[in-house]
Amino acid sequence: MFDLVVIGAGSGGVRCARMAAQRGAKVAIIEKRFYGGTCVNVGCVPKKLFVYASHYGEEFHDAEGFGWHSSGQGFNWTTLVNNKNKEINRLNGVYEKLLKESDVTIFNGRGRIKSKNEVEVNGKTIQTKYILIATGSQAFVPDVAGREHALISDNMFYLENLPKHACVVGGGYIAVEFAGILQGLGVETHLVYRRNMLLRNFDMDVRQFVQEEVVKKGIQLHLNDDVVEIKEQQEKDYPYRLSLKSGESLNTGLVLYATGRHPATEELGCEEIGVDIGSRGQILVDDDYRTSIDTVFAIGDVIDRVQLTPVALAEGMYVANLLFGGQPVAVDYERIPTAVFSQPSIATIGPTEEQARAKVPRLQVYRSSFRALKNTMSGNQERTFMKLLVDGDTDKVLAAHMVGPEAAEIIQGISLAIRAGATKATFDTTIGIHPSSAEEFVTMREPVA
User: Fold this and answer.
1) 69 falls in which pLDDT band (50, 70, 90)?
2) 2-139+262-323 under CATH 3.50.50.60, yes or no
3) Nearest CA to 253 among 157, 341, 348, 187?
4) Burial 208-223 (b: 16+ CB within 10 A, else e)
5) Domain ranges of the chain
6) CB atoms within 10 A of CB 7
7) What is the average per-residue pLDDT within 343-369?
8) Mean pLDDT throughout 371-395?
9) Rounded to an integer, what distance in angstroms lies between the CA atom of residue 150 and that of residue 253?
10) Gap between the terminal Cα atoms of the chain
11) What amino acid positions are annotated as catalytic residues?
12) What residues contact 384, with CB distance under 8 A and at least 6 apart?
């Protein structure tokens, strides 16, 4: 008899399992695929490694403005993939070791809930006091003709060869990130999106700025358009032909669909035992992450609140504390710092200007756009954008948005100040580090709106 059985060994599930076990609970975890979940294996970690790789071509070019000559540099896709695989395998081992050192019992297989206190795995029924569902999400491909020829983001990390031409379908952060990776690695890249602007739900200024910069990088945008059909053809470098809604056709070597991720609840047994499922396929939970069955909890992407690894970690910690004697700390969903590793990268904390205007009567907006010092000699035309939102009545800084190099590193620090309640006066009286891009956040003096 276990105190807790966790289904899914992603970041959130592993965190909850380890913390519960360290508090004396008898814990088991079930994983059908790989330790560390999407983020470690086919998400944030390998994607960031690929982003690093895709920057080097531009860095070599920029270096010439500083006197370096790097002619003859070549890129080897196989080397990148093999080295990435070594690192992911190492991280898999780290996660497995952490679980074993915490005395968590591991079951490799597919978990299925049989009752409020029973889980089945590999034909064996496990008795447990509590169940935690942490099965994450999976990529969604719409029902387009020829969809069997489309790849999802998972596949991109294991391609045998890099194509000469690629078409990415979608306009969210995964689509924009992979378009940047492919273009940076020398692939002629087209991005097809059914709306008129990329990155829905981000701040409008950020969206407009990124869209302009993406085009500068050479990515060819097809906005207000969509794929109607994907057909195979007998062309070595262009084995697929895409028919677009606009009437245009594209010959391509790869079709990547990055059109969202859906909660992974198939074959879990949720409906059979009465766990309520929402309209998007998400498991419905209360503020304590408890489902409609009092012994069953759920966290992470499968509840589809905020699909970010650090959020799943915080949710997992909350459940471990709630059930096994800790102090649960509620997750602040309003001020979650996040990043998009597009090129240039995006980072943000707090509401968009559009969201803030709906709640703050006297909103003050500070904006700055500039060409970074490095680019003045490199010849690189990339620009940086920064934005602060301030409550005019309280002087509190509500949000910070940035597009540019090292945006995530900069906004991570600023998120601490915002969560601590820093005012614009605090920012104004903070000494900037000169010369740096980050100092712009403490030198923006006049609101633009």
Assistant:
1) confident
2) yes
3) 187
4) ebbbebbeebebebbe
5) 2-139+262-323, 147-259, 344-442
6) 27
7) 98
8) 97
9) 11
10) 61
11) 434
12) 344, 369, 370, 371, 372, 402, 403, 404, 405, 437, 440
